[in-house]
Amino acid sequence: MGSFDDRLAEALDGVRKRGRWRELKAAALAPGGRIVRDGRELIDFSSNDYLGLAAHPLLAERAGDWARQHGSGAGASRLVTGTLDAHLAVEARVAAFKGKAAALVFASGWQANAAVIPALLAALPGAAVFADRLVHASMHAGLAGTRQHRFRHNDLAHLSQLLERHGAAAPARLILVESVYSMDGDRADIPALAALARQHDAVLMVDEAHATGVLGQGGAGLCAGIDGVEVVMGTFSKAFGCFGAYVAGSAVLRDWLVNAASGFIFSTAPPPAMLGAIDAALDLVPGMDSERAHLACLGERLRAGLAGRGFDTAGSASQIVPAIIGSEADALALSERLATRGMLAAAIRPPTVPAGTSRLRLALRATHAEADVDALLGALA
Known about the structure:
Blueprint: H1 4-17, E1 27-30, E2 34-37, E3 40-44, H2 57-70, H3 78-82, H4 85-98, E4 102-106, H5 109-123, E5 128-132, H6 137-142, E6 148-151, H7 156-167, E7 173-178, H8 190-199, E8 203-207, E9 231-235, E10 245-249, H9 251-260, H10 262-265, H11 272-284, H12 289-308, E11 320-326, H13 328-340, E12 343-344, E13 347-348, E14 358-363, H14 370-380
Parallel strand pairs: 3-12, 5-6, 5-7, 7-8, 8-9
Antiparallel strand pairs: 1-2, 2-3, 4-10, 9-10, 11-14, 13-14
Helix pairs in contact: 2-11, 4-11, 12-14
C-alpha cells in the first residue's frame, strides 16, 4: 500500500496536474501599498489590509502596552478564568460600533462562523437553512451535516421561492449571507434581505468580514442601522489591520453563544495584545472617511479600466475587483507575468471559486495611488 507519505505524495501529484498547487511564501507588507517578497518590492494587489492599518504605529504600540499590562496570554478559556476586563471593554466598544446591544470577540472569522452557526441551529431545532451559493467556506463548515437550501448568488427572488417552498412548514428558518463577497467583491442588498427575513419570520445572519471598516457610516458595515439583521459577524484581520473576529447582536444572543458555541467555550481566550490592537483600530476607523472615499474611487477607476480592456469584473462594487480569466493555467500565467512587472496579483483557482472562473482577485488598499491602478491596467493591456 505504500507509506503514508507515499500516499500524500501521490495525492499532491494530482493537485499539481490539476493546476491547483499551492505553497507558502514569506512576504512583508510595506508602506504605500507595497509588499516585499523574494527580496523584491512589488505593488500589492492581493492583501486585505484595505485601510493600511496593519503597519499603523498606534496598533503596534497599544498591542505592546496591553501585553505589558495584562501579559502575553489570557491563561484559560473565557468561561474559566480567561475573561479579562479588557475583553469586556473591547466587546462593549464593538457592540457600540455595530449599533448592537452586545458582542463577543472570537479568535478568527473561521472560528466564529464554524462555532456560531451550530449554536444557532441548536436554538432552532428543525430549522430550514438558506445560504447564498457563494458564502464563505467557514459558513459551510458551520453547516457540516446540515441540509441547506442554496439560492442563486444575490438572487432574492430565488431565495423567496425557496423560503415559500421549504421554509413555510419548518419550525424555524435561518438565512446566511455576506454583505460583501470576498471573491466577486459585489454587495448583498441587506435592507431587502432583512425585509424578506421579517416576512418569513427567519433569522438573518450576515458575514461583514469585507465590509467592516470600509463601508457604511464610520466604516460600521452595511448592516449598521438595518433592522432585522439579528446576527452580524465580522473580522478585525482585514480593514482593521490586526486579528480576530466578532459576533454582534442582542444581549440574549450573546448569552446563548456563551453557553452553546463550542468554539467559544472550549478555546483559550484571545490574548491581550490582540485586544489592544483592536481597541486602537476602533479609535481610528470611524474617522477614516477620506481613506474610504479614496478606496471607493480606486475601485471605480479599476473596474472602468478592466471593462475597457474586456475583463469581466463579476459585478464588483467594492475594494475587491476580480478580473475573471477562466482556466487555472491562464490565471497563473498572467499572475506570474504581472510579477515580472513588479505587481503582486494573486491567481484564485478552484475550489475557492467555481470551475472555469479562475481569476486575479485584485484587492485595493487606501495606501494605493491612482498611478498604481493605472500601472496595473497598463500591464494588463
